[in-house]
Structure formats: C-alpha cells, structure tokens
Design brief:
It is built from 14 helices and eleven strands. By secondary structure, it is an alpha/beta fold. The protein folds into three domains: 12-41 and 243-270, no CATH class; 45-232; 277-447, P-loop containing nucleotide triphosphate hydrolases (Rossmann fold). Strands 5-10-9-6-8-7-11 form a seven-stranded mixed β-sheet, with helices on both faces. A four-stranded antiparallel β-sheet has the order 2-3-1-4. Helix 4 (84-91) packs across helix 7, helix 10 (277-284) runs parallel beside helix 14 (404-417) and helix 11 crosses helix 12.
Length: 450
C-alpha cells in the first residue's frame, strides 16, 4: 500500500536510486579524464628559496607598530620579487641563461610567485619550470636579484644625503687647510692669529659633526641593506609538482560526484518514465499497486497477484468483472489478466479470462469472476466502451518504459467512461509472464477448480 502524493514530487533520493548507473558512468568518465590528463600533461617542477626579513630595527617602535611595519615591508618585498627589474636580473644569471633559452621578464612572468611563510618573518620565492635544475636556478636567481635590488634601492634612497655630506666634508677639509695656512702666516699672539685660531676651531667642529653624520649614514645603509638575506637556497626537486595523479584523481572524483548528481537530478526531473510503484499509484490515483519483480523467462510470480486479488476481494465487493488494460500498447494486459485469473482460481473462484483478441460478450454460465483484458486506448477504443458499463479496472504499466503522463491519461479516461480504477500493476521489463499452465487456445478461456 502506498500513500498518495502530488504527482510532481521528485527527491534527491529518487535521483540517486534511479540514476545509479548514470552517476557511475559520469564518475568513471571524470576519473578517466583526470587520469588521462595526469598522463598527457607536461611535467612541471617547483623549487623554493627562503629569504629572511630582519625586523629588529622596528622593535623600538612598540609591538603593534613593529608588526605593522614588518607586514608592510614583507608585502613590499613580495611585490618586488615579480618586478621587471628583478626578473631581468635573474635572466642575466649564467645558470638561468644556460637552462632557459630566450629568457626575459615576460618569459618568467607567471612562473614566479612569492609569499610569506606563515608564522615567520620569512619570504618564500617559488619558481616552476620543465626541469628540476631550471626551477632551482630560477628561484635562486630571483632571490639573489631581490636582495641586490633591495640594496640598490637603499643606496638610491640615501645617495642625496651621502653626496651632500661628502661635498661638505670636502669643502670643510679645504677650508681647514686654508685656515691653517693663514694661521701659520699670522704674527704670533696677534689679533689676526687669535681670530684665525677661533675660525679654525669652528671649521674643525663643523667637520667633526658632518663626519659623524657621514659615519651614521654608512651604518644606516649597512643596516638597511641587511634587512633581507637569503637563508636557504633552492635545490632541484626530486619529483614533479604537476601533474600529481592523486590530486588529479581526487579532483576528478569530486567533479564526477557533483556533475553526476547534477545530471541525475536533471534527467530525473525531465524523465517521466515510471520506475517505482509509488509513481504509478500517483499517476492512476490508487493506493493499491502491485509490482511484478524481475524473473527468469517463462517463470511466473504468483505471490504478487495473489496479494492483489486478496486486496481486491477485501475492498471491493461484489467483484464480478475486472477490466485490465495497458497504459500503452506495449504494456502486457493479457499476461496480467491471466495471472489474476490464476490467482482467483487458486482462491477457489471460477474465472473466465477474455483476452484482448476476443470478441465482445460474457461467457455462459456466468463465472464468479470475469477478467477482461482490453487493448490500450492508444490502439483501440474498446476499453472505453467496456468501461462505460461501470465496474472495476486495473491499469498495467511497464517499469522504465511507460511514462507517467500515459498512465495518468489512461486512468482519467477510464474514470470518465464510468469505471473505477482500483489497482495498478507495474511490470518489470523482463518479468516472467507465464499463466500457470493456462493458455488462451480460443477466443475465451475458463479457469476453475479441478
């Protein structure tokens, strides 16, 4: 027995249950594509060099400011690692020039990436190439070029101040020499000598101050130039980073499952073929649906028909005439009629089975139950005429072949004609259609207890 549901209910569970083969096929295709891709793709190797960012000079600013300054400095180095200046310097390296033909900044762009190492003050420079040696050479050349470019920028930053101090020291040195000559030429203990000595001391003081500033500037340049240094050179990798068969297969598995589910949902939504008894029950509007399972050829399955006959007797009295028709021309109304007749015979009734090929009429003497098999309304209007006399009707459908709308149409037609649809039979495509030894050797056949 099945509860009635709206005819358009389709769930993810239905899709998974009905489209298992389709999902498996999509999954196998995706896995096969991922495996083939991992074989045909060119091998790519990655090598990384590590650089240390010295942030100790920011420690006097407080923790928060030092942390912010360090992040800004690291971001500056990361951006500078892929600049044209650094990449051109890397191409000028002898090892890179030998391993990478026609090397240029445009060629290296896209093969270099830089980033901070989580939780540290280090920057990793990673290069990818077709050979392990080229990947390591490029990573080391870019790291060294980054250090050199940083030192060059520091030198350019301090150059105006350095040039000014150097020119001042040269001017003061010449002025001191001239003052000494003038002091030597002045008479001893004369006002000229006293003034010359005072002027010489003034120049000497200015010189000492500028010289101290020049020394501080040199120390600052040395410290700033040491902010960035290579702490670990890149080494040639032993295995390629791409393709990675496990990663490709994992991606293919995920993609196959997602794509398979989407395809299954779409097919389930648009495919209205009857696959479950519940679907047939919703289509014909009945709670009694019998499913005939798959069975070897010429082997009948009497149990479902016996149960159906028992339910019909219990719920619909008097049950004298039963009209059996297929939802479509391909549904086995005759086979179901014979099986129902056999089930009624086993229950002790006398039964007359009128196949679809028989002429009109009811056998005499009148049996306990007459089972009339009528062609589908797709091929004949006979079922409509038979249903106009009232009585009970059964709609037969084939799993995976009959469509929801066809079964619904046949049931509605029977109801409009005057029959009461009391049950439905869903027959598997290869279900046994035997008749328990009975054959319709004539136009009609009578079944009874021997």
């Amino acid at each position: 027995m099945t509860a009635r549901k709206p005819p358009d209910i389709k769930t993810i569970g239905d899709s998974l249950r009905h489209r298992r083969v389709l999902i498996a096929l999509v999954l196998l295709v995706c896995l096969g594509a991922a495996g083939a891709l991992s074989v045909v793709r060119h091998k790519t190797y990655e090598a990384s060099a590590l650089l240390y960012v010295d942030e100790r000079h920011n420690s006097s600013q407080g923790f928060d400011l030092a942390l912010q300054a360090g992040e800004l400095l690291s971001h500056h180095y990361i951006e500078m690692a892929t600049s044209r200046e650094v990449l051109n310097a890397a191409c000028a390296d002898g090892d890179v020039a030998a391993l990478v033909p026609n090397c240029s900044a445009d060629v290296l762009t896209g093969h270099i990436r830089a980033g901070t190492v989580n939780g540290t003050s280090m920057i990793s420079v990673t290069a990818d190439a077709r050979s392990p040696q080229a990947a390591a050479a490029i990573a080391n050349a870019v790291a060294n070029g980054l250090v050199a470019q940083d030192a060059q920028q520091v030198d350019q930053l301090l150059k105006p101040t350095r040039d000014y101090l150097d020119s001042e020291l040269q001017r003061l040195d010449k002025a001191i020499a001239d003052a000494r000559q003038a002091l030597a030429a002045a008479p001893p203990n004369s006002p000229q000598a006293a003034a010359g000595l005072a002027y010489l001391n003034q120049l000497q003081g200015e010189y000492d101050a500028d010289y101290a500033r020049r020394q501080d500037l040199a120390v600052e340049q040395f410290r700033l130039s040491g902010n960035l240094s290579v702490v670990q050179a890149a080494v040639p990798p032993t295995r390629p980073s791409d393709p990675d068969p496990l990663r490709y297969l994992a991606a293919g598995l995920v993609a196959g499952l997602v794509l398979g589910l989407l395809v299954a949902l779409m097919v389930e939504y648009f495919d209205d073929r009857l696959l479950e008894p519940e679907q047939l029950g919703r289509a014909v509007g009945t709670d009694l649906v019998v499913r005939i399972p798959k069975a070897p050829p010429h082997v009948s399955s009497p149990a479902p028909f016996a149960l159906a006959h028992a339910n019909l007797l219990a719920g619909h009295r008097p049950l004298q005439t039963l009209l059996v028709t297929g939802a479509t021309a391909g549904d086995p109304a005759d086979a179901v009629a014979w099986e129902l007749g056999a089930a009624a015979t086993e229950a002790g009734q006398t039964v007359a089975v009128i196949p679809t090929s028989a002429s009109n009429g009811v056998p005499h003497p009148e049996p306990d139950l007459t089972v009339i098999a009528a062609p589908s309304p797709e091929t004949s209007s006979r079922v409509v005429r038979l249903a106009s006399g009232g009585g009970f009707a059964i709609v037969v459908a084939t799993a995976g072949s009959t469509r929801f709308r066809d079964a619904q149409r046949t049931a509605e037609l029977l109801r409009r004609a005057g029959a009461q649809v009391v049950a439905a039979v869903l027959v598997s495509k290869n279900a046994g259609h035997g008749s328990n030894g009975h054959r319709s050797n004539g136009r009609r056949s009578r079944l009874g207890r021997g």
